[in-house]
Amino acid sequence: MSEQIRTTVHAGGFFLLLKDSENWRFLLLRHADRWDLPKGHCEPGESFLDAAIRELEEETSIRRKMIELDPSFTFELSYTVHYKKPVPQTCQKVVRYFLAYLYKPPRIELTEHLSASWLEWRPDKQIQAETIDSVISAVAIHLENR
Fold first, then answer.
1. Which CATH class is domain 5-144?
2. Is the pTM higher than 0.70?
């Protein structure tokens, strides 16, 4: 018998591009079992963008005033997640990603991840098919059309 999806959870996140001399790089955060982009659940009454900014600051110490938000880009993903705590349940997760730019490397202080890495911007690179690769493709299309 399959688990029934009872609720939808919303999250906001960032795809950060760092312009370092002539090269672009993007930020990935390392969990114990996977790479991820800075993101997190929306709190009650919080917009996707407000959640993305709060989570970016909490997870990396990168502040809103340090980034240049691209107002013409958002990308939304929806997928099923299985939570174990506080109670085992299956939810539909909707994540809205925003694009932002940095022009000098920030000092990153991690609070929830094992490490952080700035990867060379190569839109053909495959990292995680279900989530990150889709965001990379959307960013690549957006940048080509600017």
1. alpha beta
2. yes
